[in-house]
Amino acid sequence: MTISIQQLRRYAVARSLFPPTTLGRAINKLGFVQADPIRAPARAQDLTLRHRVRDYRAGDLERRYPRLALEEDYLVNYGVLPRSHSELMHPRTARRVWSVQRCRQADAVLAYVRDRGVVHPREVDAQFSRGKVTNWFGGSSNATTQLLDEMQYRGLLRVARRDGGTRVYAAREHPPVTPLDDAAIDRRMDALVDILVIKYAPLLASGLGSLLSRLCHGVPQWRERRAATFARARQRLGHARVGSEDWYWPATENAASRRWRPDDEVRLLTPFDPIVHDRRRFEIFWGWPYRFEAYTPAPKRTLGYYALPILWRDRVVGWANLSVERGLLKSSFGYIKGVEPRDTALRDGLTAEMARMRGFLGLAG
Prior knowledge:
The chain is α+β, with helices and mostly antiparallel strands. It is built from 13 helices and 15 strands. It is globular.
């Protein structure tokens, strides 16, 4: 196929920003929504969904999650995905083998959760207080909370809901699974790759390879199948070579079709949006390097703590930093050319986007 970077860029924007639909349908269409706890001015999962769900408000995912066939789980990152997608990764065998003592602790907690039905971590902590442990970030957390996280990862527990952002657990009951032969495992791996490609296309070869490496954290029991899965994907996906780079997308789509036409709206995108996630692709498409700087020391930041790329049509023209102070939305903007583009359509579109953002956050005008 003969295709240009400009066509790939339009394709990437238009296919990802599909017409807004219901929450359940949007998550099914995305296949996976990455979650992040930072609120700037809202969590990443809410900022991602606001462009793709009709009349979406911050927190709708958390409020409506218990009524939908969804799971919180780890795919290539932690997030929310349809239950059918989560089941493709289970039964998951973690790389770290539990000790006999750890297994006994997990059995006791699982029996307690099954008896209670749904439990908050503090209930489990009160029942099985085992002191403090050092978590991944060097701080201190309850040992029982860490055990709950490990049990969820292994598929013993599921997140039934969240209370104020805290995971509330129930036992996870899996459908009976017969031992998987090699062909069945390959089918599951291919299905998981398709989920990722559908969400993130078009993908550079390096981006596809990176996602497959991260997928090994979601299915550590099939880690050794990464190379063969990658080879099959490169054979069956739609693809083209542009300059020195290979690009991939779903075989059922024509990336060069004229149907892929971005609209005229201005949108502020989360750093974890499918359009933004691959920093190398971002730079190829828009000619400047975007960086997520929340964990960069403040004096070294160039864009800001949680810079939201400003997408207009199929161009990313700058970035915004937003915060809520005393019930008001505060904003600052930066532009890749150093000054705001002198375009009335862009200014009007940004004004409309800020009004939508205030509505999404439930703030006064």
